[in-house]
């Protein structure tokens, strides 16, 4: 009988695998059909169109671009970079247009179309389209006029940014009669056709993406075999999978930091502050410039007055008693920039600093959740461990930092790396007997080094209270001497790091407790900023609860303008939504008050959740009051929210059974898809001028193709 059951079991497993692979095959077929009939809807639609060549009917005019647009100067010295095309007397149905453009692969041309038709006697504009040299499909556009089109007015000009490759202007400006429509800028319009057959364009990345989403939904079904594989830290197979996932995140981070060429090249002088500080330290001082004449002004920190009076100053440097200093944390300087300059004589690039910190952060996050699962969620399905690590690393705040790897993001990413590493090492020490004190000391050293990156993120050190309270103040049988020794191991690294930072502060600003942020020459005079409850409350609402703003145009995720009624100077740039509101994975925290007494880790785990959330709120309040509301500042508080959300998720699925597990999986699937979409869109969102649309066009417009039919 036992032999029969074993054979049946093996048959059942084989049958289950065969069924799963059949479903994958059906999914692949469905994706292919979707790509043909939906992804290439415009091609199917144009199968029986009758082409009309409009080239000979075009009236061309070259002129200067409007103020504020990208100016292109040809080799001949002309600035005529906007081409206007007018076609009158059409009286025909136009369902699509094809622009025969000649331009460099990295060039993007903005095309604005206005028309009159049977329903509109006066010209009305259509949404702007963009043609990219790398992607021939972008040269086509569908039109949906009211009946027949009577006239067309089309304006073409190079898009902003991108480092335009300019053509020789000696042959530019020829008449339409010559048949050469070469422009006086960086592109040439060779012809225009209407009602053309649009070639099929099978977008492989879109097909892979759709297949991946479908496979994910199949993979995360309730009866999927992945939930039968329990987390086992000793499993070689699981450790190999974990290592593979970690390598994928290393590669993912490298792709992100290399995507934006503006940040890779970093041509701006104020982005070289760490390099300048390294040179200054090697010369024996910590100031990076001197301008004592500013001290003669009544308020040298009123930059609007400096600009109005054409008084030169170094923006975003700390100015104190006639000298310029770098107020950004010293730890990244000592970790990357100073050793590189001392050893090689070359400056260390900012994008590499962000990448190494992101890689260290990824390693620490995987390690942190590994120890958390061992301590509180033993026996949970292994897939939830990977989910927790992946969700934390793809939080929008961290993706934003990595996709725009400038100098401002170096200390932010470093602080998150050290915070995650510190908690990880503390948990390692608690989970092991051997080498415990060394792990405690290493964890405290990492947490203390946060003060040399982003001092406000020291608030996360409060997580030590629930972790170690029971160990030092509970009846665990430890001897007093042992407790005192462990306490010293935890506290001494803080004291050593604090002494070094205080000495550095005293060298710069004559006080060991002054980090110098108040002396920054920026658009915000922080020496007079003070503290204001209204500003703090508005900042908390924005940082955590502001909904993400979406529009029906790629990249869909738009900036929030942060309009408010604060009757004072509210320093703000933009946000892509608050941390809690924009990422639905965080919504499981709503169950925390209900589940607090039932949490499997008892006071220890619930205390960590409360401390992580509390520290995030304190950091958000500090940033809103002392600095302002900026997208990058969400990364100060994001780790606490991410940690609390993922620990809560692990607890819920560790405890869930039957119906609650089923409904929990439904929520998790939807939340993870939304989370991934938000992370994807924030890479391409255009909140400021340094974005992929301007300086990573091949990647940007390649992503845009995923959503075009």
From TrEMBL:
Signal peptide: none annotated. The keyword Lipid biosynthesis does not apply. The chain crosses the membrane at residues 20-38, 202-220, 240-259, 351-370, 382-401, 408-427, 439-472, 484-504, 574-595, 607-627, 633-653, 665-685. The keyword Transmembrane applies. Keywords: Membrane, Transmembrane, Transmembrane helix. This is Uncharacterized protein.
């Amino acid at each position: 009988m036992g032999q029969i059951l074993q054979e049946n079991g093996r048959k059942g497993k084989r049958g289950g695998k065969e069924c799963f692979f059949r479903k994958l095959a059906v999914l692949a077929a469905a994706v292919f059909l979707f790509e043909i009939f939906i992804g290439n809807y415009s091609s199917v639609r144009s199968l029986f169109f009758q082409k009309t060549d409009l080239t000979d009917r075009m009236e061309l005019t070259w002129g200067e671009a409007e103020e504020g647009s990208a100016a292109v100067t040809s080799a001949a010295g002309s600035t005529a970079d906007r081409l206007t095309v007018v076609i009158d007397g059409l009286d025909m149905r136009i369902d699509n247009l094809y622009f025969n453009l000649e331009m460099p692969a990295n060039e993007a041309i903005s095309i604005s179309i206005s028309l009159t038709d049977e329903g509109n006697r006066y010209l009305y504009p259509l949404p702007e389209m963009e043609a990219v040299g790398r992607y021939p499909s972008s040269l086509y556009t569908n039109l949906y006029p009211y009946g027949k089109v009577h006239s067309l007015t089309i304006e073409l000009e190079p898009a902003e940014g991108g480092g335009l490759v300019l053509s020789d202007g000696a042959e530019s400006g020829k008449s339409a009669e010559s048949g050469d429509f070469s422009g006086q800028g960086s592109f040439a319009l060779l012809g225009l056709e209407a009602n053309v057959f649009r070639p099929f364009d099978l977008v492989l990345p879109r097909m892979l993406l759709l297949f991946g989403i479908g496979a994910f939904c199949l993979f995360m079904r309730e009866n999927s075999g992945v939930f039968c594989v329990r987390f086992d830290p000793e499993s070689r197979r699981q450790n190999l999978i974990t290592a593979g996932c970690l390598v994928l995140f290393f590669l993912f981070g490298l792709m992100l930091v290399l995507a934006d060429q503006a940040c890779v090249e970093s041509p701006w002088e104020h982005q070289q502050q760490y390099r300048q500080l390294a040179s200054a330290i090697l010369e024996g001082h910590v100031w990076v410039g001197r301008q004592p004449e500013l001290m003669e002004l009544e308020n040298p920190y009123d930059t609007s007055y400096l600009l109005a009076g054409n008084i030169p100053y170094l923006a975003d440097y700390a100015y104190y008693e006639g000298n310029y200093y770098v107020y950004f944390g010293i730890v990244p300087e000592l970790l990357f920039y100073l050793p590189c300059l001392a050893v090689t004589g070359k400056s260390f690039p900012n994008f590499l600093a962000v990448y190494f910190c992101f890689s260290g952060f990824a390693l620490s996050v995987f390690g942190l959740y590994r120890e958390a699962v061992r301590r509180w969620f033993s026996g949970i399905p292994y897939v939830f461990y990977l989910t927790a690590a992946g969700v934390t690393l793809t939080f929008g705040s961290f993706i934003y930092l990595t996709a725009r790897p400038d100098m401002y993001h170096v200390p932010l990413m470093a602080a998150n790396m050290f915070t995650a590493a510190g908690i990880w090492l503390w948990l390692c020490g608690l989970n092991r007997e051997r080498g415990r004190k060394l792990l405690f000391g290493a964890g405290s050293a990492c947490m203390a080094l946060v003060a040399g990156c982003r001092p406000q993120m020291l608030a996360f050190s409060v997580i030590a209270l629930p972790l170690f309270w029971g160990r030092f103040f509970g009846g665990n049988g430890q001897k007093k001497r042992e407790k005192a020794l462990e306490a010293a191991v935890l506290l001494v690294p803080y004291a050593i790091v604090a002494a070094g930072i205080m000495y550095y502060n005293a060298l710069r600003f004559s006080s060991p407790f002054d980090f110098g942020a108040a002396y920054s020459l920026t658009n915000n005079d922080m020496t007079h900023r003070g503290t204001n409850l209204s500003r703090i409350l508005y900042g908390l609402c924005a940082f955590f609860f502001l909904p993400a703003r979406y529009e029906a145009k790629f990249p869909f995720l738009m900036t929030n303008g942060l309009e408010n009624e604060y009757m004072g100077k509210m320093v703000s740039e933009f946000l892509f939504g608050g941390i809690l509101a924009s990422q639905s994975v965080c919504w499981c925290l709503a169950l925390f008050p209900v589940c607090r007494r039932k949490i499997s880790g008892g006071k220890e785990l619930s205390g960590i959740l409360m401390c992580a959330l509390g520290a995030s709120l304190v950091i958000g309040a500090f940033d809103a009051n002392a600095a302002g509301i900026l997208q990058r500042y969400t990364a100060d508080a994001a780790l606490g929210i991410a940690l609390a959300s993922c620990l809560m998720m692990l607890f819920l699925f560790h405890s869930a059974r039957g119906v609650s597990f089923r409904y929990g999986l439904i929520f998790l699937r939807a939340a993870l898809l939304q989370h991934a979409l938000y992370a994807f869109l924030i890479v391409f969102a255009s909140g400021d001028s340094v974005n992929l649309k301007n300086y990573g066009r091949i990647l940007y417009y390649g992503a845009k193709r995923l959503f075009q039919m």
